Amino acid sequence: MNDWVDGDSAAEDPFAGGKALPRRPARLEFPAWRWDGRALAERPELVGEECATALVFNGVNYAVMMMTPADFEDFGLGFALAEAVVGRQQDVLALEVQDVSLGVEVHVTIPEARMSVLEQRQRSMAGGTSCGLCGVIGIERALRPLPTSTRPLPVKASAIARALDELPRMQKLNAGTGALHAAGYALPSGKVLMVREDVGRHNALDKLIGAAAKAGLSPAEGFVVLTSRCSTEMVQKTATAGFSLLAAVSGPTALAIRLAEEAGLTMVGFARRQGFNVYTCPDRVLAG
């Protein structure tokens, strides 16, 4: 089942410029394999889609965000207002959404006086805690090719369950705050050797990859466990670092599943001690 989300019609949207808006599914059905503590059983899962969306002001790429493919016009206008690109709605002179091969471009026309301020800000733009692609200004760079796993790591289902059980107990910072994400390096046995925490899930994973490298831990000999959802950026970072299995406590996006499949990365989602879903390479998750 695919859920399609259409934008407002041109007649209803003063920014639409008379052109049809992109028609992309916001949710997709994917095959998955559910581990219930005894065996893997195939069943379909509904997964939220993710779309690389470039914000283009006066013809200049500003940033790429990964977002649910819906309400693009609201996003473009809201971003311009919330980030003080413009001071009022009337300063957005035109807004057009274009469906391109790798994603969507939201073209926003603003007064030239505002554009000079935007160009100055772009040179010193800092990423927020939830944005894994801040500073990336082209869709092609956002969806870069990933290396293919050459040393797949088979892991027992019980080991994944053990790692997810150990991870929260090793979150020292989150214990007193309840506000931090964690990324952990686990051995094939499920023993978690190290954990790094951060308010940003991407930051936590970056910290873990750096710490593992400093400690001489091989990505080919362990797997990553996350307290967050599994989006495109998390797959990109994990695969690029050389890991072949990623387990997250929340669900993946459809684009993340496709990228993981292409990279030969085993993706596990909704991971809990009592069960989890396997979205790619289910043959690497062993019973027991």
From TrEMBL:
GO terms for cellular component: cytoplasm. The active site is at C131. GO terms for molecular function: sulfur carrier activity; sulfurtransferase activity. It is found in: Cytoplasm. Pfam families: FdhD-NarQ. GO terms for biological process: Mo-molybdopterin cofactor biosynthetic process. The keyword Cytoplasm applies. InterPro entries: Cytidine_deaminase-like (IPR016193), FdhD (IPR003786). The keyword Secreted does not apply. It comes from the Bacteria. Keywords: Cytoplasm, Molybdenum cofactor biosynthesis. Required for formate dehydrogenase (FDH) activity. Acts as a sulfur carrier protein that transfers sulfur from IscS to the molybdenum cofactor prior to its insertion into FDH. Belongs to the FdhD family. This is Sulfur carrier protein FdhD. The gene is fdhD.
